Amino acid sequence: MIFEGGMRREVRYRAYRYLEPEVDYRVFRLRGWFRPEWSYKVPLSRAEEERVEELLERCIVIDLHEHPFLFP
Question: Fewest CB within 10 angstroms: 34, 44, 57, 68, which?
Fold first, then answer.
């Protein structure tokens, strides 16, 4: 939140906003967040599928395999 002249204004946070593109760092175009070739279906038998469904219904699932980066 920034207050200017008694007015409240929303400002979105942006890391390193004090740096100037092409002056302080080189700009790279990043590809999209998702590519179909990045995902694949794990082949399961019918019994395995049923077991997965049962576990998803009963248990809390936390995905610890995230990759928080993008490639140019």
Answer: 68
| CA torsion, ordered 20, 23, 25, 31, to nearest 10 deg | 80
Q: Where are the domains of the chain?
A: 1-26
Residue 2, helix vs strand vs coil: strand
Q: In the chain, where does DSSP find H-type helix? A: 46-58
- For Cα atoms 18, 22, 27, give the angle at the middle one, nearest 5 degrees: 95
What phi, psi does 47 have (nearest 5°)? Answer: -65, -40
Claim: this prediction has a pTM higher than 0.70: no
Left (φ > 0), alpha (ψ -120 to 50) or beta: where does 22 sit? left
Which residue type occupies 61?
V
